[in-house]
Amino acid sequence: MKSRSATKSKHYKDSISKAERYALGESIRKECPIESHSGFNLREETDVAELHVQNTQDRIRKLLPIRYERLMESPFAFYRGNAALMASHLVQMPSSKLHLQACGDCHLLNFGGFATPERKIVFDINDFDETAVAPWEWDLKRLAASFAIAGDCKGFSTREGHDAAWTVANSYRKHMEEFADMSALQIWYAQINIIDIIKSGKIKNARQFDPKAIKRAVKAEPHERELAKFTFEKNGNPRIKDAPPLVFHVAPEKEHAFFSQAEKAYDRYVKTLSLDRRTLLQRYNIRDVAMKVVGVGSVGTRCGIMLLMSATGDPLFLQFKEARQSVLERYLGKGKFAHNGQRVVEGQKLIQSASDIFLGWTADDAGNQFYIRQLRDAKIKPALENMDYQTFLSYARSCGWALARAHARTGDPAILSGYMGGTEEIEEAMASFAIAYAKQNEEDYQKLQSVLQEKKLAI
């Protein structure tokens, strides 16, 4: 299965009917039965500590304690920061070999609401650092397992965690069936509008999101809020506030050289944008640049924010994030993009229903690669801490729907539907996997915790 934008599987054929493609998906079950996705068994254990040593190569050393502090907050935090570890496990499992553009780090907190260029609020995947061409089931397994692990951390029972993972797969399968009946253009234009799905009853309430955040996203100018929140005036000029160790400027003696490097990288970034975006950015100039720690898995990589201002005093905040090789590519082979910033940007545009208008990529003189986007453009994060169990299930349905829509863009939904079939077999398999993997995640969490407590890992 392949779209013109992803990879072509040996099973894909041009110009065949939906029924024939569905039958093709059914036939692949003979090579990789649905039940083979159940449970979790490793042929070879991964050395958790050694993998972390590999993943911290060339990171900013002084930030590593923050990375490990965040990883050790809970088994779910550990899971969020360990896409590489899970990839080392998934590559050992049976595969359908139906490849498409995968998110690569598909856990429940990498979904949320954001504003489209038309300022509608849609629900979608919102993190693509690890995006790569990969088997479709890798994303679904990581998403299902995240509900089992997060559910356990919230105090839900094992059965409830199982049912949440089952719900993710059920939503994914049923929505994939719907996408199989759509034209390629209908799929490409499909969006999940938060307001519409609340009104439709598919999400019974908005408690998985902060209602105030939705209202702010619709009405407010986000960069004005960020200007008030993140800056102060110095000698009549706006400057980003330092909040060490999470937000900081480089040492004073290095600031001039750092700013010069940032300007050159910015000029390279602008060239990756379309003419209309380049024209818009001509109205702005860089006023300040600071480093900013983000996420769990990205701590220690070169990330930060740029403050730009127009001649009329309008602010624009851009975020730059270092882009490294996808952890999936370590096990599946290097993709077609030599530049990892471009890999992230192009992957996001393939998967997301509407991407940031300022999404682009660049590199510095040292060869470090980055992608750039707006900072917090009307983003709405899921309020996991506020979810009761019914809201948790509702959110699971939303995530399964969004993942199906993403996969339908570069995969063949008829083949995927044919492979999953019309019964609930895939739901049972994914739920079984999720519970088994939650146990593996707990074991790996405890292993790393012991290594850190015994100071066997240099940080």
From TrEMBL:
It comes from the Bacteria. Pfam families: DUF2252 (PF10009). This is Uncharacterized protein (DUF2252 family).
